[in-house]
Amino acid sequence: MLHTSDWHLGRSFHRVSMLGAQADFIRHLVLTVRERDVDAVVVSGDVYDRAVPPLAAVELFDDALHRLAELGVPTVMISGNHDSARRLGVGAGLIERAGIHLRTAAAACGTPVVLTDTHGDVAFYGLPYLEPALVKDEFAVEKPGHETVLAAAMDRVRADLATREPGTRSVVLAHAFVTGGAPSDSERDISVGGVSSVPAGVFDGVDYVALGHLHGSQTLTERVRYSGSPLPYSFSETDHHKSMWLVDLGADGAIDAERIDCPVPRRLARVRGRLEDLLADPELARHEEAWLEATLTDPVRPAEPMARLCARFPHTLSLVFDPERAPDDPDVSYATRLAGRDDQQIAEDFVAHVRGTGPDEHEQTVLRDAFDALRADEAVREVAR
Questions:
Q1: In 3-state terms, what secondary structure has residue 278?
Q2: Which of 121, 224, 239, 263 is the most buried (most CB within 10 A)?
């Protein structure tokens, strides 16, 4: 099976449209399916970049569905936190007749797509992104959180699997932040109660877990893997190796996984230093055709920095200012002081700054509940769209 995720159709990279590159990826995926005799394709969420995607992105998705259906290779897809589950799932019953299985409803977590190979049945369970505040009633959890709702969903998976013929192998598609995974700047925050990650042990009892959400391809355990996004969507992904997993599931559930490289339109690079040094350094010639993020450390902002950078590095997309200053300089930027801190920490620091003492345990809980309520409200509005 070919494991991929996080297509984010319709997304741009800074000011550059990625639709052409996304179309190239779809062609590459279809070619890989054909040339490597793939038996099934799994897409683990974030098919689109937003709940209401642009028309060009919808057309590209439609083209992808037609190409996959024409190959006669079954495809299982779930919705991610960027997708509108209801919109993505429209027509799922009809599309299923063409071998495209869309799983976007929490209630269907325990109902697999059963495919058969020479070794017998393989049950594919689709766990779409489960926003805790929206699915807590479905799973009857007292305190909604990512771990509790995923654990409840996996209980349904294991219960169904127990009714299957002995030797039935199992694959779970899930869209989540699993502990041990390395995030990047391009994933949307899904934290609830101050906790966004879930332990890999939640998925115990199945043969392979095809994860989506984190954009770097990575192996958490032999059986739990992220495919990552097929294209870069932030400069934090400069060192990523964009790929898909080609996974062979043996008769006994043994895993043999191979990374299949994805075509990337242009290499990413980051440079840092004073403007004049960046323009003169011969070692940086290798970055002249890359998409570039430049961090300028000049103590005083130079004149027309972007125009001057683009004269040498024509694909400069991001310009960051981080002036060299003494540690005790009062002009150290507010952004620098906030770097790496989440909303909860920033709010607690603000309370301490205003009052002289930080929030107590009860006040921390009030702040956390406020942030969770805001995220839940945003999720509801995304669904309403």
A1: helix
A2: 224
**Which CATH code of 3.60.21.10, 3.90.1170.50, 3.30.830.10, 3.30.2310.20 fits the domain covering 2-261?**
3.60.21.10
Query: Does the pLDDT value for residue 330 go beyond 60?
Result: no
List the beta bridge partners of residue 116: 121
CA neighbours closer than 13 Å in the CB half-sphere of residue 336: 13
Contact between 171 and 1 (Cβ < 8 Å): yes
Tokens of 362: 């009860």
The confidence score (pLDDT) of residue 384 equals: 56
Percent of the chain exceeding pLDDT 90 equals 76
Question: How many Cβ atoms sit within 10 Å of the Cβ of residue 21?
Answer: 18
Instruction: Return d(Cα 334, Cα 359) in angstroms, integer.
Output: 21
Angle at 324 (CA atoms; ends 320, 325), nearest 5 degrees? 125
Q: Is 332 left (phi over 0), alpha (psi -120 to 50) or beta?
A: beta
Domain boundaries, the chain: 2-261, 268-324
| CA–CA dist 292, 272 (Å, integer) | 11
Q: Which two tokens stand for residue 175?
A: 């869209």
Look up residue 304 and give its DSSP letter. Answer: S
Asked if residue 226 lies in contact with residue 16, where contact means CB atoms within 8 angstroms, the answer is: no
Residues 120, 169 contacting (CB under 8 angstroms): yes
pTM beyond 0.90: no
Which has the minimum average pLDDT: 38-42, 181-185, 306-310? 181-185
Element (H, E) at 124: strand 120-127
How many CB atoms sit inside 10 A of residue 22's CB? 24
Task: Write the CB contacts of 168 (distance below 8 Å, at least 6 apart in sequence).
Answer: 120, 121, 122, 123, 161
Pairing of strands 291-296, 268-273: parallel
Helices 361-384 and 132-139: crossing angle, nearest 10°?
A: 90
